[in-house]
Model the fold of this input.
Amino acid sequence: MKRNEKSFVSIILLGIIVCIAVGSITLVLFVFRSDRVVDLVEKNSIISVLFTVGEKDHLDMMELYLYNPATKKSALFHLPANLWTMIEPLNRYDILEVMYNQSDFRPLMQKVEKLTSVKVDFFIDIDFREMEQIVDLLGGLEVFIPNPVDTEVNGERILLEAGSVIVDGEKIKELLKVELPDDTDLETAERKQQIVRAILQRIIDYKDSGLLFKPEAFHVFMQNIQTDLSEAEVKSLLHEYETVILDHLISNRVHGTTISHESRGMIFSPNDQGDYLRLTVKKTIEYMAGTGEIRPEDLIVKLDVLNGTETSRLAAKAANIYKKYGYEILTVANADVQNAEKTVIIANNGNEKIAKEIGTIIRCRNVQPPKPDTVRKSRADYTIILGNDFDGQYCK
Done:
């Protein structure tokens, strides 16, 4: 009887061991066979990658790249390193760069997700010191330099010729470092975004030759980047990027103002706490899902601003406020009524959620759906009718 009990226990233990072994093998096979990039492509999901270039705790470039595998359309969003924002782990406002940590990218990815309302799938970081090797592996990058550059950075003289030129890795590093006194925020963003575009162009150029997938070249590439992608996933991503339609690439950035800070030097203060960025990202993703050609002007939210009071120049004041936030103003005029008590924002396109975000700029919470019988026909996405509660800056 005891022998039978021992046999029974042995069988149970053997069964448990077999189950554990099978489970472990299944888990290993799943881990090694699973390709998150392929999964996203099969689902026609947006693939979002945070590209960064930096050194230790210094961030030289940060771009969020969104790619739609179904339409082959993509978008770049420039995020300045000196973006002034709430740093939640530190419980204080500071520049975004303080979250750049080459040993742990997850906090930075989470912050970018909060800034853009987009899940960041992966990150690819290139140490500034390794940027030269990456660019030279690609055979140099073609960039456009509008004006010749002759300046100094950290005591080193930088010379760059004007025009469309192919530059090597050393020159690309100089292009990343240079800060010209007459540069606008837009020009700085464009200069860094065209580096990412040039890298994408090189990936496309080498599609037929398969240069990047040759063992030696791919080894050099992987040795000079840091990423949360496996080697197989990097290959899958590169294969997808070979099919990108660069003519449909949309470049955008955070809108705001560069101001001086007593301890941080020049900081970039975003308009409306970054609401316009989230709005632009949302609209960009919608257009990326379409099959028609993306026009940059289609991504700009269009407004009609109408004065519903007898106070002169009220509409002009409100229009100027919205222009600073990057909105396109189609109409500045008097409304059909001149005795409106409350300001109202009418969602001509039916998107009342975005209308509420627009209203936060002037602290207006009164949002209404479109009313064809009372609102004049317009190409504007939203119509703002100002009431007596608007004092020229905010609704009281």
